[in-house]
Amino acid sequence: MRGSTALSKILLLSTALCLFSGTSTAASAESHSRIAATAKAYIAARHPWQQLSTTITVQKLDPRTKLSSCPGKLEAFLSNGAKIKRRTTVGVRCAAGAKPWKIYLPVTVEAYAKVMVARHPIAPGSIISAGDVSWGKRDITSLGYGYLQSLGDNGGYQSRQSIAQGAVLTPNMVTASSIISKGQRVQLNSNDGPVSVSMMGIALQNGALGKRILVKNLNSGKQLEGVVASENSVVLN
């Protein structure tokens, strides 16, 4: 009986030691949430989409990962030459204490902006009007070919290719639409020198705003080149 009591005391003592040891180990391990928060704050302060609504997600560490508790401040960093993108690997390190360490975590940024979306299928060569598009919020970090947020300046856009219903309109899908047509009478303005001169001419090419086209001076018959300035004027140079 006395031996049984002694054995029970030994077992209780062993259990207590194990519990104490486990508590001590847990207390000495660095918090995964603190590591993740450090990486997230680093990206949040530096990503290139500061003016947009964003969602930042840090990939969870393996639960088996044990790092000694850092007595100082954790520091986040990027590898040399690395830039913040949609998915970025961020380093977090502890330089204080007896056992310095560092670990790397993938961090994903989603940034949402209002973009133009095709309301219905658009055929190649079509002039894109307000009735052809709608606006919706999209994660622009996943739009590798860019995006459009408006119909542009006077003249808008013309489709280069077939555009599927629901597709986000990108710059490579469109070209600036012509606002001057071949054969149209236009005003030619010359600002060369101290005096501005205006004359009438005829467009020899279709032209989009800001594009160079050939025109003919009606008075002299000369062929000239200029930049489309509006629906009825070209600036000569």
Automatic annotation (TrEMBL):
It comes from the Bacteria. It is found in: Periplasm. The keyword Iron-sulfur does not apply. Residues 1-26 form the signal peptide. One of its GO terms (cellular component) is periplasmic space. CDD domains: SAF_CpaB_FlgA_like. Residues 113-175 form the SAF domain. One of its GO terms (biological process) is bacterial-type flagellum assembly. SMART domains: SAF (SM00858). Keywords: Bacterial flagellum biogenesis, Cell projection, Cilium, Flagellum, Periplasm, Signal. Involved in the assembly process of the P-ring formation. It may associate with FlgF on the rod constituting a structure essential for the P-ring assembly or may act as a modulator protein for the P-ring assembly. Belongs to the FlgA family. This is Flagella basal body P-ring formation protein FlgA. It comes from Zhongshania antarctica. The lineage of its organism: Bacteria, Pseudomonadati, Pseudomonadota, Gammaproteobacteria, Cellvibrionales.
